[in-house]
Amino acid sequence: MNTRNKQAPLDDQLELSRLSTMYSEFVSVLDDMPPSLQSSVILLRDNESPTEYQPISYTTQRYRLQTMFYCAKLLVVHECIRFELPSIIGLHNDRSAWTREELNIARDFVHTLQSVPFHYLRGNGEPGIELIRAVGSVLLEISQNSDDESHQQRGHTLLNIILNILAKLNSQASDKLIEHLSNASVASFPSSMSPD
Fold first, then answer.
1. Superkingdom, according to UniProt (predicted)?
2. CA 101 to CA 98: how far, in whole Å?
Protein backbone atom coordinates (compact mmCIF):
# COMPACT_ATOMS: atom_id res chain seq x y z
CA MET A 1 0.00 0.00 0.00
CA ASN A 2 2.82 2.38 0.88
CA THR A 3 4.53 1.71 -2.47
CA ARG A 4 1.31 2.63 -4.26
CA ASN A 5 1.14 6.03 -2.49
CA LYS A 6 4.74 6.76 -3.51
CA GLN A 7 3.96 5.75 -7.09
CA ALA A 8 0.90 8.05 -7.43
CA PRO A 9 2.82 11.39 -7.33
CA LEU A 10 5.31 10.04 -9.86
CA ASP A 11 2.48 8.88 -12.12
CA ASP A 12 0.83 12.31 -11.76
CA GLN A 13 4.09 14.05 -12.73
CA LEU A 14 4.50 11.80 -15.76
CA GLU A 15 0.91 12.49 -16.82
CA LEU A 16 1.36 16.26 -16.42
CA SER A 17 4.57 16.08 -18.44
CA ARG A 18 2.83 14.07 -21.17
CA LEU A 19 -0.07 16.55 -21.30
CA SER A 20 2.36 19.46 -21.45
CA THR A 21 4.17 17.83 -24.39
CA MET A 22 0.86 17.22 -26.16
CA TYR A 23 -0.13 20.88 -25.65
CA SER A 24 3.21 22.05 -27.08
CA GLU A 25 2.66 19.86 -30.14
CA PHE A 26 -0.88 21.17 -30.51
CA VAL A 27 0.07 24.87 -30.40
CA SER A 28 2.60 24.32 -33.18
CA VAL A 29 0.13 22.56 -35.49
CA LEU A 30 -0.50 25.63 -37.67
CA ASP A 31 3.24 26.22 -38.13
CA ASP A 32 3.40 23.45 -40.73
CA MET A 33 0.53 24.62 -42.93
CA PRO A 34 1.29 24.85 -46.64
CA PRO A 35 2.35 28.36 -47.75
CA SER A 36 -0.94 28.84 -49.59
CA LEU A 37 -2.79 28.56 -46.26
CA GLN A 38 -0.35 30.59 -44.15
CA SER A 39 -0.94 33.89 -45.86
CA SER A 40 -3.85 35.83 -47.27
CA VAL A 41 -1.71 36.28 -50.39
CA ILE A 42 -1.91 33.22 -52.62
CA LEU A 43 1.52 31.88 -53.50
CA LEU A 44 1.68 29.91 -56.72
CA ARG A 45 4.55 27.99 -58.25
CA ASP A 46 6.10 29.51 -61.37
CA ASN A 47 4.29 27.11 -63.69
CA GLU A 48 0.85 27.56 -62.06
CA SER A 49 -1.87 30.01 -62.87
CA PRO A 50 -4.70 30.70 -60.44
CA THR A 51 -8.16 29.46 -61.15
CA GLU A 52 -11.22 31.34 -59.94
CA TYR A 53 -11.94 29.03 -57.04
CA GLN A 54 -8.40 28.93 -55.58
CA PRO A 55 -8.41 32.24 -53.67
CA ILE A 56 -11.83 31.48 -52.19
CA SER A 57 -10.87 27.89 -51.36
CA TYR A 58 -7.60 28.86 -49.67
CA THR A 59 -9.23 31.67 -47.69
CA THR A 60 -12.03 29.36 -46.55
CA GLN A 61 -9.59 26.64 -45.47
CA ARG A 62 -7.31 29.10 -43.67
CA TYR A 63 -10.25 30.74 -41.89
CA ARG A 64 -11.72 27.40 -40.77
CA LEU A 65 -8.38 26.07 -39.56
CA GLN A 66 -7.62 29.23 -37.61
CA THR A 67 -11.02 29.51 -35.95
CA MET A 68 -11.00 25.83 -34.95
CA PHE A 69 -7.44 26.17 -33.67
CA TYR A 70 -8.05 29.29 -31.56
CA CYS A 71 -11.30 27.92 -30.17
CA ALA A 72 -9.71 24.58 -29.25
CA LYS A 73 -6.68 26.34 -27.76
CA LEU A 74 -8.89 28.61 -25.66
CA LEU A 75 -10.98 25.70 -24.40
CA VAL A 76 -7.87 23.68 -23.47
CA VAL A 77 -6.39 26.68 -21.63
CA HIS A 78 -9.72 27.37 -19.94
CA GLU A 79 -10.02 23.77 -18.69
CA CYS A 80 -6.41 23.72 -17.44
CA ILE A 81 -7.12 26.92 -15.53
CA ARG A 82 -10.43 25.60 -14.22
CA PHE A 83 -8.69 22.52 -12.81
CA GLU A 84 -5.76 24.65 -11.62
CA LEU A 85 -3.20 22.89 -13.81
CA PRO A 86 -1.49 25.90 -15.44
CA SER A 87 1.86 24.11 -15.70
CA ILE A 88 0.45 21.98 -18.53
CA ILE A 89 0.17 25.09 -20.71
CA GLY A 90 3.40 26.69 -19.48
CA LEU A 91 1.88 29.15 -17.01
CA HIS A 92 2.80 29.72 -13.38
CA ASN A 93 0.49 30.26 -10.41
CA ASP A 94 -0.58 33.77 -11.40
CA ARG A 95 -4.34 34.01 -11.96
CA SER A 96 -3.98 37.36 -13.70
CA ALA A 97 -1.60 35.81 -16.25
CA TRP A 98 -4.06 32.94 -16.76
CA THR A 99 -6.88 35.32 -17.63
CA ARG A 100 -4.58 37.43 -19.80
CA GLU A 101 -3.66 34.30 -21.78
CA GLU A 102 -7.35 33.46 -22.31
CA LEU A 103 -8.04 37.03 -23.45
CA ASN A 104 -5.10 37.00 -25.87
CA ILE A 105 -6.33 33.78 -27.48
CA ALA A 106 -9.88 35.15 -27.67
CA ARG A 107 -8.49 38.33 -29.26
CA ASP A 108 -6.72 36.25 -31.93
CA PHE A 109 -9.98 34.39 -32.55
CA VAL A 110 -11.92 37.66 -32.91
CA HIS A 111 -9.26 39.11 -35.23
CA THR A 112 -9.57 36.01 -37.39
CA LEU A 113 -13.35 36.53 -37.58
CA GLN A 114 -12.83 40.16 -38.54
CA SER A 115 -10.15 39.37 -41.14
CA VAL A 116 -12.46 37.69 -43.64
CA PRO A 117 -15.53 38.91 -45.51
CA PHE A 118 -18.76 38.20 -43.65
CA HIS A 119 -19.98 35.56 -46.12
CA TYR A 120 -17.14 33.27 -44.95
CA LEU A 121 -18.60 33.33 -41.44
CA ARG A 122 -22.07 32.63 -42.78
CA GLY A 123 -20.70 29.80 -44.96
CA ASN A 124 -19.54 27.85 -41.93
CA GLY A 125 -23.14 27.40 -40.77
CA GLU A 126 -24.13 26.40 -37.24
CA PRO A 127 -20.95 24.35 -36.53
CA GLY A 128 -18.84 27.47 -37.15
CA ILE A 129 -21.24 29.54 -35.10
CA GLU A 130 -20.94 27.08 -32.21
CA LEU A 131 -17.20 27.82 -32.15
CA ILE A 132 -18.00 31.52 -31.87
CA ARG A 133 -20.49 30.83 -29.10
CA ALA A 134 -17.96 28.72 -27.16
CA VAL A 135 -15.45 31.58 -27.21
CA GLY A 136 -18.23 33.98 -26.24
CA SER A 137 -19.08 31.83 -23.22
CA VAL A 138 -15.49 32.01 -21.94
CA LEU A 139 -15.48 35.79 -22.49
CA LEU A 140 -18.78 36.10 -20.62
CA GLU A 141 -17.29 34.24 -17.68
CA ILE A 142 -14.21 36.50 -17.66
CA SER A 143 -16.25 39.69 -18.01
CA GLN A 144 -18.36 38.75 -15.01
CA ASN A 145 -15.99 36.85 -12.72
CA SER A 146 -12.49 38.27 -13.12
CA ASP A 147 -11.05 40.04 -10.09
CA ASP A 148 -9.17 42.43 -12.38
CA GLU A 149 -11.32 45.26 -13.73
CA SER A 150 -9.15 45.68 -16.85
CA HIS A 151 -9.66 41.98 -17.65
CA GLN A 152 -13.41 42.36 -17.13
CA GLN A 153 -13.47 45.34 -19.49
CA ARG A 154 -11.37 43.62 -22.14
CA GLY A 155 -13.53 40.50 -21.90
CA HIS A 156 -16.67 42.63 -22.20
CA THR A 157 -15.29 44.45 -25.27
CA LEU A 158 -14.42 41.19 -27.06
CA LEU A 159 -17.76 39.67 -26.01
CA ASN A 160 -19.63 42.61 -27.55
CA ILE A 161 -17.83 42.04 -30.86
CA ILE A 162 -18.81 38.36 -30.76
CA LEU A 163 -22.43 39.18 -29.86
CA ASN A 164 -22.62 41.62 -32.79
CA ILE A 165 -21.26 38.99 -35.16
CA LEU A 166 -23.70 36.36 -33.84
CA ALA A 167 -26.60 38.81 -34.11
CA LYS A 168 -25.69 39.51 -37.76
CA LEU A 169 -25.59 35.77 -38.38
CA ASN A 170 -29.05 35.53 -36.78
CA SER A 171 -28.23 32.12 -35.37
CA GLN A 172 -29.55 29.82 -32.69
CA ALA A 173 -26.14 30.10 -31.02
CA SER A 174 -26.62 33.85 -30.80
CA ASP A 175 -29.97 33.35 -29.09
CA LYS A 176 -28.44 30.87 -26.60
CA LEU A 177 -25.53 33.15 -25.71
CA ILE A 178 -27.73 36.24 -25.38
CA GLU A 179 -30.16 34.25 -23.18
CA HIS A 180 -27.24 33.06 -21.05
CA LEU A 181 -25.96 36.63 -20.80
CA SER A 182 -29.41 37.85 -19.74
CA ASN A 183 -29.75 35.12 -17.11
CA ALA A 184 -26.27 35.83 -15.77
CA SER A 185 -27.02 39.56 -15.57
CA VAL A 186 -30.27 38.96 -13.67
CA ALA A 187 -28.51 36.51 -11.35
CA SER A 188 -25.86 39.11 -10.53
CA PHE A 189 -28.47 41.60 -9.23
CA PRO A 190 -29.03 41.65 -5.46
CA SER A 191 -32.49 40.18 -4.78
CA SER A 192 -33.85 43.59 -3.78
CA MET A 193 -32.78 45.03 -7.15
CA SER A 194 -33.94 42.15 -9.34
CA PRO A 195 -35.67 43.47 -12.46
CA ASP A 196 -38.68 41.16 -11.91
1. Eukaryota
2. 5
Residue 49: count other Cβ atoms within 10 Å of its Cβ: 7
pLDDT digits (tens), the chain, 196 positions: 444 455 556 688 899 999 999 999 999 988 888 877 776 554 444 445 555 656 778 888 889 999 999 999 999 999 999 999 999 999 988 999 999 999 999 999 999 999 988 888 888 888 899 999 999 999 999 999 999 999 999 999 999 999 999 998 875 555 666 676 667 654 543 333 333 3
Q: CA-to-CA distance for 119 and 123, rounded, in angstroms?
A: 6
User: Measured between alpha carbons, how far is 27 from 89 in angstroms, rounded to an integer?
Assistant: 10
- Taking the domains of the chain in order of start, what are their residue ranges? 54-187
Residue 141 phi/psi, 5-degree rounding, is -60, -45
DSSP assigned state of 93: S
Task: Find the DSSP H helices in the chain.
Answer: 2-27, 35-38, 53-82, 95-114, 118-123, 125-145, 149-169, 172-188
Sign of CA dihedral 158, 89, 91, 62: negative
Instruction: Give the pTM.
Output: 0.76
Closest CA to 41 of 53, 55, 52: 55
